Amino acid sequence: MIRINSFTNKSIAVFGLGKTGISSSRALLDGKANVLAWDDSVEARSRAKSKGLRLTDLYQVNWNDIDTLLLSPGIPDHFPIPHPLVERARNSGCEVICDIELLAREILDPKIIGITGTNGKSTTTALIGHIFGENNRKYQIGGNFGIPALDLETLDDSGTYILELSSYQLERVPSLLLDLSILMNISPDHLDRHNGMEGYINAKKNILMSLKPDSKAIIGMDDGFCRGICLEYMVKKGGDNIIPVSIKNRVPGGIYVDGGRLFDDIGSNAKAVLYLRDLKTLRGAHNWQNIAFSYAAAKLSGISEQDTIDAISSFGGLKHRQNFVRKIGSIEFINDSKATNIDAASRALEANTEIFWIAGGRLKENNIDSLLPFLGKVLHVYLIGEAADALSKLLNNLVPTTICENMNDAVNSAYIAALEKKSATILLSPACSSFDQYRNFEERGNTFCSIVNKLEE
Predict the structure, then answer these.
(1) What is the side-by-side strand order in the sheet with 355-360?
(2) Which of 2, 241, 267, 456 is 20 to 30 A (C-alpha) from 198?
(3) Can you state the percent helix, strand and coil of the chain, rounding each to 5?
(4) How confident is the model over 180-228, as pLDDT tens digits?
């Protein structure tokens, strides 16, 4: 755990007692802060109390006595409607921050790499960490991915924190200074929380505003939003400080994919360094993008080309991201439960063929343009959850659809249909969040895997 000393003998409110809130409270208490911890959920308060936290009802406090509110990432502070406690805090002049800001305010010697993007940031964070680990570098990975930042081990100046940063976190980190910023891609997501696309883009751009002077940024070029940002920052910071990445086009001075090969053109001496189709894990073009960003980060961190390639080749991937579950005869089952938006699902469709697609949940958007190039690979769609009717209308006349009662119904219906084909892929790639039926995407993916593993051959 990282001790937070910047609030010693000061009062700080912590609202939201999930993993991040409890982690932050403990780090603050370890630094002798006066922590006022609360959650609207009785269950969350009970869980926090069982972990030794003393609770303070933030609806009863005098906010004029509190300078800072540490807010859980999931609680809205502006849009669609700010939480009433946030309004009280702001009306009293409180700053609103997140756990990453606490980390930033400590005097830390290690380097910090920040990674954000709509899709792929967790895999990229984990892959960069894997490359560091395979090369005996001191590192810790966390933030929005896996372990809360303040639960990470304290590192010395030879270490590196590798942090996945969400759009929510990036709006609450005014002191963050990064040694390397990575902006992978941007597509519509969390628009209600950012009051539309412009607000979401601005939140993501904060990762570049948090860059130390003369440090470098790696920016994707494969969507219009990031391409514009990349060109803008090349002008602002100079081309040498911006490393472009593309899996669609050659990008001078950057890392790109051409003909299934990864090219390193940093230093303007293009060289093929990896045959991506030879990799047994990290399926699909979207994973090629993850590899390209990870390779660039490793190179800028001083890890050799061959050591980086060896580490990439040994990476096993993350759960619920196009994971192979089982094969029955010629039918493959793929779990891509982490595909919580339409763009992520389109990447799964691109990577597979002869697809019986299971989709649905809580829909974040209704623009299916990114799916259109790949619907020819889809034999049938089995729809579940809140979005079933809406998705059925959006996909009408494009691909056959069936609305199913639940995951079990969808898997079994898809399996029966697939048995009639010589080969097929049954793909769970929901294109929606999971919160209509499940606690999180992990529970949804585990449910899918459990049903698949019970199927009789």
Answers:
(1) 323-328, 331-335, 424-428, 355-360, 378-384, 401-403
(2) 241
(3) 35, 25, 40
(4) 999 999 998 888 888 899 999 999 999 999 999 989 999 999 999 999 9
DSSP state, 321?
A: S
Question: Band of the pLDDT at 365, cuts 50, 70, 90?
Answer: confident
Helical axes 305-313 vs 121-134, angle rounded to 10°? 120
Strand partners, 333: 326, 426
Model pTM score: 0.83
In terms of Cβ atoms closer than 10 Å to its own Cβ (0-12, 13-18, 19+), residue 454 is: exposed
Residue ranges per structural domain of the chain? 11-97, 104-313, 323-453
Other C-beta atoms lying within 10 Å of the C-beta of residue 95: 14
DSSP 108-143: --SEEEEEE-SSSHHHHHHHHHHHHHHTT-EEEEEE
Q: Which residue has the tokens 């094969």?
A: 327
Q: Where are the alpha helices (DSSP H) in 211-256?
A: 224-237
**439 near 362, Cβ under 8 Å?**
no
DSSP reduced 3-state for 344 = helix
Residue 279: the pLDDT is 86
Torsion of CA 307, 313, 319, 323, to 10 degrees: 170
Helices (H) and strands (E) in the chain, counts: 14, 19
Phi, psi of 175 (to 5 degrees): -100, -5
Q: Report helix, strand or coil for 169.
A: helix
What is the CATH class of 323-453? alpha beta
> What CATH class does 11-97 carry?
alpha beta
Classify residue 352 by burial, with Cβ atoms within 10 Å: 0-12, 13-18, 19+: buried
**Is 122's pLDDT higher than 80?**
yes
Mean pLDDT of the chain: 94
Which residues have CB under 8 Å from 346's CB, separation 6+?
A: 370, 371, 373, 374
Q: Indicate the fold that domain 104-313 takes in CATH.
A: UDP-N-acetylmuramoyl-L-alanine:D-glutamate ligase (3.40.1190)
pLDDT of residue 196: 92
